[in-house]
Design brief:
Layout (H helix, E strand, L loop, with lengths): L1 E8 L2 E8 L2 E4 L2 E4 L5 E2 L14 E3 L6 E3 L3 E3 L4 E5 L3 E4 L18 E3 L2 E5 L6 E4 L27 E2 L5 E5 L1 E6 L20 E4 L6 E5 L2 E5 L4 E4 L2 E5 L2 E5 L7 E3 L4 E5 L2 E3 L6 E4 L9 E5 L2 E3 L14 E4 L3 E5 L2 E3 L6 E2 L10 E4 L2 E3 L3 H4 L29 E3 L14 H5 L8 E4 L22 E2 L3 E2 L22
Parallel strand pairs: 6-9, 7-10, 8-11, 9-12, 10-13, 11-14, 12-15, 13-16, 14-17, 15-18, 16-19, 17-20, 18-21, 19-22, 20-23, 21-24, 22-25, 23-26, 24-27, 25-28, 26-29, 27-30, 28-31, 29-32, 30-33, 31-34
Antiparallel strand pairs: 1-2, 2-5, 3-4, 35-36, 37-38
Length: 466
């Protein structure tokens, strides 16, 4: 007995085929567990293009040797346990990472990636190219900033939904035939949705993103939710972990940002944009961000600018080059942006001076529920993390702080009992929740409500699960 169920959603039409085999022996009945598929099941070891249907989880990896396109109207579903190793053209290994050989996903339909904590989806490069991911490495030599492959371009997508998905070593350059809006030689973003379709949605949950040459995530003209992820080594000499452009609405919450080149979160709109960019940034943890950006006054933790509006609450910002910045030369919509309850820690007086992103004409001001103090005051008491790394100055950051851009295996940014960050959050506001996605039996987005403690890890065990 076979049944077919059709789900017609804004994300497109997903065909889910399930089968149930029934047999009877006297008065007992056995029902086989149905297999869920989106379209056809992919078979083989090497991804092909165009691609649609279901890639099932398995022990053996799949391989990506060239660009893969998901066409308009099609859906690609990566199930829990899928591991994709990007190797590029196997006949031209010496060009891997160059403009002619850095494979990219181009999503013009729907991409679903539904890993679990126990069985994440992984899209990465061969282990022999990674060096030692646990060692502090000079930025110029770090494989994380090589840009071996092109990441996910979802500019034409209706929906991208990624859950418990690990993506690393992205940012290879565009070639001579770069898509409209991109320049030849420019690094590709880790994940981009500069959406060309109305009502495009982007959901990123509980995932790990590691190593990007420029922006790790860039969004435009999209409804979105970025929840409970970990970002490390984002941007070699520039770029943000999450860069939100005009006509976006959504939430960025419970994420951990470690050692980003510029900001963990950057939010901007533009004159006359409809809708005006509106982002709630709350309960995130930022450490060691902003030190590889060489442009004056750039970089640090959170930056709102260019007529953007939103909410900024409950963020824990430790040893970043700048604190929350309401940029002055291209000012945000200050009348419609509310911020408070940031928890700041600084190891040096130079960092203390930048709690309010003290660039000329900064609009950022102290708020009554902020936590701030002198150097080495208000230690958040992470369970395990070195807060004494020599940072140099804002004008001349040290090479050490620039390369201290990831969590070592023993590090733990959860709060110890008695941390002064406990109880410093505000819970009297609501997330925007602009991109809810429910696909029965396959994907359910989850927006976490504001937490009572500052930062991504809550003392009651909720928040970030990385």
């Amino acid at each position: 007995m076979f049944t077919k169920t059709y789900f017609n959603r804004a994300a497109g039409v997903l065909l889910l085929a399930s089968g149930a085999a029934l047999s009877s022996c006297e008065d007992s009945t056995e029902v086989a567990k149905p297999e869920r598929l989106v379209g056809e099941k992919f078979s083989g070891d090497t991804l092909r293009s165009p691609l649609k249907g279901t890639i099932p989880g398995r022990t053996a990896p799949y391989y990506m040797t060239k660009d893969v396109t998901v066409n308009d109207g099609d859906t690609l579903w990566l199930q829990a346990g899928v591991k994709i190793i990007v190797i590029g053209n196997p006949r031209s290994t010496n060009t891997f990472g160059q403009a002619t050989n850095n494979p990219t996903f181009f999503i013009n339909g729907v991409l679903l990636s539904t890993g679990t904590k126990e069985q994440p989806v992984s899209i990465t490069i061969p282990d022999n190219l990674k060096g030692d991911p646990t060692a502090v490495v000079d930025v110029a030599a770090d494989p994380a900033f090589k840009g071996y492959w092109g990441g996910i371009n979802g500019d034409g997508a209706t929906l991208i939904a990624l859950q418990w998905t690990n993506i690393g070593y992205v940012g290879g350059p565009y070639g001579a035939n770069a898509p409209s809006g991109y320049e030849a030689g420019a690094p590709k973003y880790g994940i981009s949705m500069l959406a060309s379709k109305a009502n495009a949605r982007f959901v990123l949950e509980d995932s790990y993103l590691h190593g990007s040459v420029d922006d790790c995530v860039r969004l435009q003209n999209a409804k979105f939710s970025v929840m409970r992820n970990k970002f490390e080594k984002t941007g070699k000499a520039g770029g943000d972990a999450v860069n939100v452009k005009e006509s976006c609405e959504g939430d960025i919450a419970y994420n951990v940002f470690v050692g980003g080149s510029t900001n963990g979160v950057k939010v901007a709109s533009k004159a006359g944009a409809v809708p005006q960019t509106n982002v709630a940034t709350y309960n995130n943890t930022f450490v060691n961000c902003g030190y590889r950006q060489t442009k004056s006054g750039r970089g640090g933790s959170i930056n709102y600018e260019v007529q953007a509006k939103g909410l900024v609450y409950n963020n824990l910002i430790a040893n970043c080059r700048f604190g929350l910045r309401m940029r002055s030369d291209d000012a945000p919509d200050a009348a419609n942006t509310r911020y408070d309850n940031q928890f700041y820690y600084a190891n040096t007086a130079d960092q203390v001076a930048q709690f309010n992103a003290a660039t000329a004409g900064s609009l950022t001001t102290n708020q009554p529920a902020d936590t701030r103090g002198a150097a080495q005051e208000n230690n958040p008491r992470f369970q395990a993390f070195d807060l004494a790394t020599a940072a140099g100055t804002t004008a001349a950051p040290s090479a050490t702080i620039q390369a201290t851009n990831f969590l070592k295996p023993a590090d733990n940014l959860r709060l110890q009992a008695g941390s002064p960050a406990i109880g410093k959050g505000r819970t009297s506001f609501q997330p925007l929740n602009t991109a809810p996605v429910t696909i029965s039996g396959i994907f359910q987005s989850t927006v976490s409500a504001p937490g009572a403690d500052a930062g991504a890890y809550q003392s009651n065990g909720t928040g970030n699960l990385q």
